[in-house]
Specification:
With about 90 residues, the protein is α/β, with parallel strands linked by helices. The protein has one domain: Oxidized Rhodanese, domain 1 (3-Layer(aba) Sandwich), CATH 3.40.250.10. The longest helix has 12 residues. The N and C termini lie far apart (about 25 Å). The C terminus is likely disordered.
Amino acid sequence: MSPTNEVLLDVRTPAEFAEAHAEGAINIPVQELPRRIAELDRSRRVVVYCRSGARSAAAATMLRSAGYTVEDCSTLSGARLRGRRH
């Protein structure tokens, strides 16, 4: 699947996202995902990540249950986030 058919979803808090995030990621905190899930396009694979893996695992479960194709990257290392401060 090409990157244009994917969406990178950061499920950390807005403060964590503001500190650093992967380029091109969108932020929907895992606590908000149930009410904001419709913001995601079901035709695109959702690549989900967080800091430790717990939140991304919970988000991946929710997304799969709602019919999304999901890849749980669990965590992105500091090296991948470094220099991505926005």
